[in-house]
Structure formats: structure tokens, C-alpha cells
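User: I'll paste a sequence; please echo it back and then give the predicted structure.

Assistant: Echoing your sequence first, then the prediction.
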Amino acid sequence: AAFGIEGRHLRAFKSAADREVGLVEQVITPLLRQKNSDSKARAEEVAREIASLSIRLHASLVRAGLHRAR
């Protein structure tokens, strides 16, 4: 286990990712229910954008937390 991180530690990452997926799904579900032809493409675009922003936010929060820990 690199850096002492084992499978049991990864569960927290999986749980956090699952919560983020749930949030994205809440946002895009109304788009997916729309009947127009552009709504599915728009939902996919919104999901990608939120995922990208989520990754950036997560990285910033981790960096800030590590900076405070020093």
C-alpha cells in the first residue's frame, strides 16, 4: 500500500464521489425530463461542467487544508 493508504481508506473517497454524483444528478434530472431534442446534450454538458468545477473545488479545498495543517 503506497503511502500507507489501503482499500479501507479509499472508501471515504468513493463515498464522497457518490455524494457528488448525487448532486449532479439532482441538477441534470430536470433537463433529462424535458422533451426537446437539445435537453439531453445540455444535461451532458452541464454534468461535465459541474464535474470539472467539483474537481477544481476539491483540489483547492485539499490544498487549503494541507496549508493550514503546516
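The two ends are 25 Å apart (CA to CA). The chain has a mean pLDDT of 95.
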